[in-house]
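Shipment paperwork, digital attachment
Item: protein structure file
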Amino acid sequence: MKILQIIREEVVPLSRRQGTVLLIIIACVFQFVLFYAPALADAAVKKANAQETDQGVMISNDSVTKEATMDTEAAKITTVATTTVATTTNKVEKVIKTSTHMMTAYNSEAAQTDDDPCTTANGFNLCKHGIEDTIAANFLPMGTRVKIPDLFGDRVFVVRDRMNQKHPNRVDVWMKDHQSAMNFGVKIAKIQVLE
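Attachment content:
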């Protein structure tokens, strides 16, 4: 209070009414800066992320630096939440974590995998299973169940494979058909890790 009194008397000699008006103006400015500005910035970031997701992100194969940068940036956009999602089997799935990642697709070809393209890193045979419910992700433990609602709705995927170490934060979705994997391209989307 002494500081305000000194400012009022010595620095800015104002009448009582002018001092009150100045104090209200300063309070309004601080309220905007402290409360509305962060919310506006957050809304702008969410809008930019939504536009980026809607448009998809196309990256050439020789642009490893861009891919690594996008992997890192996508991993930074991580939020932790606990929600409940109902599946088509009426079983309630609890979401324990939500994060945004770069998404690509692959299929069982030696050129895209190793010399045993049907077998995943944990020994699961994709060709015999034949259902598109497998993903490769280095940042999640094997067996983790996830949903990718923006791209696949309520379909549940299981982490059964790993990717090249240069993609620590990317998700690679297994698809039966080569052309489907090519058409998928590169996308940014949220994943929901299930309990």
